[in-house]
Write a structure and sequence with these properties.
Layout: H1 14-19, E1 39-47, E2 56-65, E3 72-83, E4 87-98, E5 105-116, E6 128-135, E7 138-143, E8 146-151, E9 157-158, H2 162-167, E10 176-183, E11 187-204, E12 207-215, E13 225-228, E14 234-238, E15 242-246, H3 254-265
Parallel strand pairs: 9-10
Antiparallel strand pairs: 1-2, 1-15, 2-3, 3-4, 4-5, 5-6, 6-7, 7-8, 10-11, 11-12, 12-13, 13-14, 14-15
Length: 267
């Protein structure tokens, strides 16, 4: 039997996402964009299953910076997800990555905690802090002083780095990269392939726009499908459980997301 990632996967299209209401408030971005330069994107996170249609769960912010003539880039991540009982799962990460097609990990640090929104205090014990690095085909992870190593074949990227990767791939049917993905900087998924999958049309309030799709077959928490605009800006992505939609107000909208989620989940 072929590996699970090679089995036919259910196909989610832009039209199906629109029909489910995930793109109802989407406004196409305007202006120039350089995927090789510095940038910062904010995304609304929606639940794909188990929630009422188009329920907002939180936001994801990913930023890229490269110092002049530096041999590497820095990606920073902030993620908030609403939880039951007025709690929030907060994640912050900083990754140093190679300037290659895979945005290969060199080193990173990540902090994750559950916060009680009313008090602002940690609600799930001490924050989980982790550091890691990749060298000599070995993955090193240290969590609260406990070390872990694992041999890897070739470079390793992270699911959050895929935002950078897809934005620098060409619009070409032959475009693809072989991937080993460290999901949420914890779970290693090897033998992945991210490939160009053609053009789809999205009807927005401002008219129709063409989006280029890239697909990464397989299951996991990292996105499996990505849509970028003509400037190579990532505007929509989906995983098994979530949809991510570009929105410059995503971070500012967090208070209302948390409040509305509490009202919906409490029914």
């Amino acid at each position: 039997m072929p590996p699970a990632q090679d089995m036919p996967q259910p196909r989610i299209t832009l039209s199906s996402l629109a029909e489910m209401g995930f793109l109802a408030a989407f406004d196409p971005p305007t202006g120039q964009f350089d995927p090789h330069g510095d940038w910062a994107h904010g995304y609304l996170i929606f639940g794909l299953s188990g929630w009422e249609p188009a329920t907002k769960l939180g936001f994801l912010k990913v930023s890229r910076h490269r110092a002049p003539d530096a041999p590497c880039v820095t990606l920073t991540v902030e993620k908030r997800l609403a939880m039951l009982n007025a709690r929030t799962h907060r994640t912050c990460a900083e990754m140093t990555c190679a300037c290659d097609a895979m945005c290969s990990l060199i080193s990173w640090s990540v902090q994750s905690c559950i916060v009680d929104e009313a008090s602002g205090e940690s609600a799930g014990g001490l924050p989980a802090e982790e550091t890691g690095r990749v060298d000599d085909q070995t993955l090193h992870i240290d969590t609260r002083g406990r070390g872990f190593t694992r041999s890897v074949r070739g470079p390793v990227t992270a699911d959050w780095c895929l935002v950078d990767v897809v934005q620098r791939l060409p619009f070409d049917q032959g475009a693809h990269v072989e991937l080993a993905v460290l999901e949420e900087l914890e779970m290693l998924q090897q033998r992945r392939q991210l490939s160009y999958a053609g053009v789809e049309t999205l009807t927005t309030r401002g008219g129709e726009m063409a989006l280029h799709r890239y697909s990464q077959p397989g299951h996991g928490v990292s996105p499996s499908d990505f849509w970028v605009d003509c400037m190579h800006r990532l505007v929509v992505a989906v995983s098994d459980t979530n949809a991510y939609v570009l929105d410059p107000t995503a971070e500012a909208a967090w208070p209302s997301i948390s409040r509305d989620f509490g009202a919906t989940a409490g029914r």
